[in-house]
Design goal:
Helices cover about 10% and strands about 40% of the residues. With about 240 residues, it is mainly beta. The protein has a single domain, classed as Exo-inulinase, domain 1 (Jelly Rolls, Sandwich), CATH 2.60.120.
């Protein structure tokens, strides 16, 4: 009779190693998955920044350009869009920021501005990527769409017409700290607007004006400027960098 010897101990070790590797890969994937600070249904995970007598004009719905006033937005019933709809009757609105915080990240989102409107995307609540109706402009400045406010204008005008949805992709590296001291400045690897690279390799030694606190940090929220005019945001994804 022939006997077959099976080394169960070695096989079990191999199985444990494979399981450990599999679980580790799942953890790695989960850490690198995109998160959304906006659930598409409500603004429970957001706070507004007080400013004088300004009122909170943010709500969730479906944005559309006002049929009688191209400089304003109206909010229709629905979900999926954060809409800031100040008007002459409602008064000026407020900046809004997430309770969700992040460090190094790829930020993707879509925006819509009506004619002549102005907003801003504040990375970490402190570094502003400008949002403006810049469609058709040939001379671009620090306040135009895609500018890093107060630091550098966009390399080109990639803006769509007012009232159309536009897409931003921002790759951001947070400032680094050691023993409570900053050892590396914040850094924008690139900014892509509507598929075109408009900013690359921009070091940020300090916050841009108008931020949440004026202080830098290793992790921070995303903030949208709301006190300068109507704007809508949707499909907000923030993916940690490896």
């Amino acid at each position: 009779m022939n006997y077959i010897y099976i080394n169960f101990t070695d096989n079990m070790k191999k199985i444990r190693l494979l399981l450990s590797a599999f679980i580790g890969s799942l953890i790695l994937i989960s850490h690198s998955q995109a998160a959304s600070p906006f659930n598409g249904k409500d603004l429970d995970d957001w706070k507004t920044k007080p400013r004088g007598k300004n009122k909170d004009c943010w709500s969730v719905g479906v944005a559309a350009v006002h049929p009688e006033n191209p400089n304003e937005l109206i909010v229709k019933d629905g979900t999926g869009e954060m809409v800031n709809a100040p008007s002459k009757s409602a008064g000026k609105s407020l900046d809004i920021y997430s309770t969700f915080t992040y460090g190094d990240a790829r930020i993707e989102l879509e925006i819509m501005v009506p004619k002549g409107s102005n907003s801003g995307i504040y990375i970490h609540g402190e570094y502003e990527i400008q949002v403006l109706d810049s469609h058709g402009r040939t001379k671009l400045g620090m306040g135009d769409m895609g500018a890093i406010y107060g630091a550098k204008p966009p390399a080109m005008n990639a803006s769509k017409k007012p009232g159309e949805w536009q897409k931003y992709e921002i790759v951001f590296h947070a400032p680094k700290y050691k023993d409570g001291k900053k050892v590396k400045n914040a850094y924008i690897e690139k900014v892509v607007l509507n598929g075109k690279v408009i900013q690359e390799k921009i070091e940020l030694p300090k916050p841009t004006p108008g931020g949440l606190t004026g202080k830098e940090m290793a992790k921070g929220p995303i903030m949208f400027q709301g006190d300068h005019g109507p704007v809508a945001y949707r499909n907000i994804k923030i993916t940690p960098l490896k």
